[in-house]
Write a structure and sequence with these properties.
alpha/beta, Aspartate Aminotransferase, domain 1, 2 domains, 13 strands, 14% strand, L-aspartate:2-oxoglutarate aminotransferase activity, aminotransferase, Aminotransferase class I/II-fold pyridoxal phosphate-dependent enzyme, AspAT/PAT-like, pyridoxal phosphate
Length: 395
């Protein structure tokens, strides 16, 4: 049998990308076990009926053929307008490419920024697919630690030390998994390094509608950064459209031109009726995005209230996104050990910190994605389990 390409056979770097616990939880659910899942960022509500109505009307109206590869003009204009409204960035439709979700946009952006063998930087902790995305384009991931003691805000000096010879840097704010929203000082330090090292900056901003503290500042709005920034966004989190696979890349017109060529030879665009539904969703304005985000702010506050009543589990209060990172090192367990035992004993599934890199060891990520009453029950089980493990450790 012919050999598989090294690029794909090595895409996970020899591991499972930290998804084994998630798959085991899903297998238990499929077998009828009542598992409470706090794993992936999947809304507990589904896409709003009026968005689905717009999708159905477009499909029945005949928008089922090949759509324009860059995306429909209407949707590109709306995306550009949304980005302009966040920070007055000079985007027009020529600066936007519509993609099949944010993950596809990350792959395309790295394809533009990196040649085979190039070094691509990312901050650790990172979303679990980031290293594989980089390997998938033939580049080499190099992680730069963002430390818990710094609130997971990356240090400029660390980035400068790690960036020599690199071609790109992937940033994510609001951040998955930590919930950190990068401060102006952090972004300014990143911008200085990007300028000094001539880096492409790929800015994953899919959680820009979920900010609980502070302000989200689009990286392309930083002085001098527009021309070297590829901004990734999607409607997955802002409008609960995860299954619609509708995202975008925003950048210079020249960069978007190259990315259109890539799309022509790979995805060949996104179905027109899905784009029409996305355009309808964006046309409803930021009030709808705030309504979609509201349950995650509420559940974030539920977790913080529970944390205040005990001393064993610690957390840096997340400033954004739909997750909380919990420090469970007091139990003496790794995040993976904690997660495996929690699933076995309490039928609660989380993601271990080790799924997201070295800097997240001894942590777990809790997704704020169950209805409030069920989420409260999952928290009860998690905190009771932790108390047992602390008692066993002390015995």
């Amino acid at each position: 049998m012919p050999a598989f390409s090294n690029r794909l056979s090595g895409i996970t770097g020899g591991g499972d990308d930290g998804w084994s616990l998630f798959y085991r939880a899903r297998a238990l659910k499929d077998a009828g076990e009542p598992v409470l899942e706090l794993t992936i960022g999947e809304h507990d509500t589904r896409t709003a009926p009026d968005i689905l109505d717009a999708m159905a009307a477009s499909a029945r109206g005949g928008h089922t053929g090949y759509a324009a590869v860059p995306g429909t003009r209407d949707l590109r204009e709306l995306v550009a307008r949304r980005l302009q409204s966040l920070a007055n960035i000079p985007y027009g439709p020529e600066n936007v490419l519509i993609t099949p979700g944010g993950q596809s946009a990350l792959f395309a952006a790295h394809s533009l920024a990196c040649d085979h063998g190039d070094t691509a930087l990312l901050f650790d902790p990172y979303y679990a697919t980031y290293p594989g995305t980089i390997r998938g384009v033939g580049a080499v991931p190099r992680a730069v630690a963002a430390r818990p003691e710094d609130g997971f805000q990356p240090r400029e000096a660390d980035l400068m030390d790690a960036s020599e010879g690199a071609k790109s840097l992937l940033i994510n704010t609001p951040n998955n998994p930590t919930g950190a929203v990068y401060s102006d000082a952090t972004l300014e330090g990143i911008a200085r390094v990007a300028e000094a090292r001539d880096l492409w900056v790929i800015s994953d901003e899919v959680y820009d509608a979920q900010v609980w503290e502070g302000t989200h500042r689009p990286f392309a709005s930083m002085p001098g950064m527009f021309g070297r920034t590829l901004t990734v966004g999607s409607l997955s989190k802002s409008h609960a459209m995860t299954g619609s696979r509708l995202g975008w890349i925003a950048g210079s017109a020249e960069a978007i031109g190259h990315l259109i060529n890539l799309s022509t030879h790979t995805t060949y665009g996104v179905p027109g009726y899905i784009q029409d539904a996305g355009a309808y969703a964006l046309s409803r304005g930021p009030k709808v995005e705030a309504e979609v985000a509201a349950p995650f702010r509420r559940r974030r506050d539920m977790v913080l209230a529970r944390l205040a009543d005990q001393q064993a589990i610690k957390a840096i209060p997340p400033a954004g996104a739909m997750y909380v990172m919990l420090d469970i090192r007091a139990t003496g367990l790794s995040g993976l050990e904690f997660g495996e035992m929690l699933l076995d004993e309490e039928r609660v599934a989380i993601m271990p910190g080790e799924s997201f890199g070295e800097a997240a060891k001894g942590h777990i990520r809790v997704a704020l994605t169950l209805p409030d009453e069920i989420f409260a029950e999952a928290l009860d089980r998690l905190f009771a389990f932790t108390a047992r493990k602390l008692a066993e450790k002390a015995a």
